[in-house]
Amino acid sequence: MAKITEVPRPNPTQKAIGSWGLSLVLFPLAIVGIAVLVVQLDTYETVAYPMHELGEPMFVTARENVGTVNSGLEKIGSGQLVGAEDIAYETKSGLLYTGCEDGWIKRVKLTDSVADSVVENWVHTGGRPIGIAMDESGDVFVADAYKGLLKVSSDGKLELLTHEAEGVKFGMPDGVAVAKNGMVYFTDATYKYDFPGAVNDIYEGRPHGRLLSYDPSTKETKVLARDLYFANGVEISPDQDFVIFCETFMRRCPRYYLQGEKKGSIDVFVDNLPGLPDNIRYDGDGHYWLGIPWGNSLLTKFIQTYPFARKILAFIFKHLHKMPELMKFGGVIALDLEGNTIRGYYDDSWKMTTSGLKIGEHLYMGSIIRPHILRLNLTQNPLPVSTTNTTRKGNGWWGSGLVFFSFVVVSIMLLVVMLNKSKTVTYQMYKFSKTIFLTDRKNTRSLSSLEKIGLDELIGAEDIAYDSNSGVVYKGCEDGWIKRVMLNYSVVENWVHTGGRPIGIAIDDFGDVYVADAFKGLLKVSVDGELELLADEAEGVKFGLIDGIVVAKNGMVYFTDVAYKYGLHQWFHDFLEGRPHGRLLSYDPSTKQTYVILRDYYFANGVELSLNQDFVIFCETFMRKCSRYYLQGEKKGSIDVFVDNLLGVPDNIRYDGDGHYWLAIPWDDPFSLKFIQTYPFIRKILAFTIKYLHKMPDS
User: Fold this and answer.
1) Which residues does the UniProt record annotate as the domain Strictosidine synthase conserved region (predicted)?
2) Which of these CATH numbers, 3.30.565.10, 3.40.190.10, 3.90.1860.10, 2.120.10.30, describes 51-419?
3) How far is CA 119 from CA 96, 126, 264, 674, in A?
4) In terms of pLDDT, which residue wins out, 667 or 229?
């Protein structure tokens, strides 16, 4: 027999402190792991982009941080031009046209002084006008995200031209341009998603965009090009021989030939752009001006390369209905007639700059989010000024990108956990004191006299009862069998099957065995093996998980119901919730009555009687203590603490007849356990883990 050896008193907090460091590592990993699992289980699918088609972003000579320059930068229509994405200009009247977030097509009378500019609500489309263009007669054509392709005559009459092509409804009409012959060219950014959900087109990674044409003479809509990655801005060449359209997610602008030998074919006008292109406009002076709402970065490339990263972002958008901010700068670049970049402007505050149009000596810049149009004096801000690689700025965001993604993952976890209906409350931590010191012998696996009985036959043998008359040990096992073990021969016998899960077990003076079965209730097995159900409820409340049990000499049975709210497979939720659902009960065989002696305990567990039968001890697991209920004497019916501040959570307690109680400690008391009990939200995270993994974390 192994002897208890007195050794110098150890510091019981040493293990706890060591566990704290481990907890700091495990908790973030657990949160990330849960988040990844939750996102992976989502039915939303993302696929890989054709990254082989993307080259290194080009160098662009640009003037950076123009927004910090006071001279030459002005705001037009502040507060009146919210979300003015695209811009069209009529030279005859000097009017600028734009579609805004409130559904109005607005006209702006341009003057030398911004203060004198007049904004007029001209025509309301009833939708969300985005792309806008004018023909030579003064009619305005609008790509409305909700309505379709619209026409507004010079006198303000609104007409719906088309809202589908080849039987497929437009998802989000975006860019539009009108040729000199009256043909209208426009894009459907994505036929699968509408305007509010268009960002999902980025995340999914499949090409749903289309380039289309509308012939006013025949009223026919044709699909010129399909399977485009977010087809965006459109512009026609000065010679009307090709139409340029922006393929935003591929950082390129292809062109579709309208005339000549290449008619009907497509090639690339410009690619490897320094950011994601939006609208493109020709200024009549040999230059195209291209809006860049997002600058390129390694983070952008990372998101495009890895579908799961986009699935995370899609998950955020699904639950928050808001797109995370990926980039911090945008701007406008100028291209020559061959698609070569000439110059550009960008600024940290110019994110989501969607269009640029040069009128006279000014560059007018629209944005889908700003409440105004920016006007930059090009004479006062000439180019080139400095040669700047616009990708360097983006690369600088790589470090913050990693931080962003860590934040995203944690945010997803917090969001999902918060949405979960599981509720957790605060434990009564003020009742805890410092853990007691204990003289112990560690690493008992090294003891030569340590043996295993019933290897692979006694799986889940939680409690033990011993019949000294027969020398037989009784145990309830995971397979539902109450098993008998002849200690002298170490023979294991399957004795009686309960049909449930026997946990607590005790024996009376007559040799009858009493069982606390987690599924069935309180059972009795006679000496000859006859099984009887004694009770499965008390005061009209079914047992949730009965656990500990003991039989007094007078035949009274005392037992615990761990948590009337949860069953065996959900017991850990009782710990995580933090509310007391445990009960101490008694069963009187003479009257067959079940009584609730005590209620509102934190996981009422093991039970034992004192030597003199004057009190019953029961373990309150999650409070790390064992209380006693007095059965006789002056204190009859009262409760006090038998032992508390244990070095771990107590389970079963048994008296050996030789003056000692033996208390099992399934978990020690690391700092992480106190941390979990102190903060309800941490327990909510763990509850969510169990819900999806159906497995309890190793605490």
Assistant:
1) 174-260, 549-633
2) 2.120.10.30
3) 9, 19, 41, 63
4) 229
